[in-house]
Specification:
66 residues, mainly alpha
Length: 66
C-alpha cells in the first residue's frame, strides 16, 4: 500500500472500535454504569449525523458495484 493510500485509509474508523473506546473511557473508569444502546445504535446515530450534515464525510472515490 502506498503511503498516500495508507494515510487516507487510516482516517477511517470502525464504529465497533469507537464503541469499544467509549466503553473503556466511560464504563471501565466508572463514569457511567453502561452505555445507552449497543454498537448498532451507535452505527445508526453516526449514519443519522452524516445524513443530516452534522458530520461531514468525504465522498466515495472508489468504483461502486451493484
Amino acid at each position: 500500500m502506498s503511503p498516500q493510500k495508507h494515510h487516507t485509509a487510516s482516517k477511517q474508523f470502525r464504529v465497533s472500535s469507537l464503541y469499544d473506546l467509549l466503553e473503556e473511557l466511560l464504563v471501565d473508569t466508572g463514569k457511567r454504569q453502561s452505555l445507552p444502546g449497543n454498537q448498532q445504535t451507535l452505527r445508526n446515530y453516526c449514519a443519522y449525523l452524516r445524513k443530516t450534515g452534522q458530520v461531514k464525510s468525504a465522498p466515495v472515490e472508489a468504483r461502486l458495484c451493484n
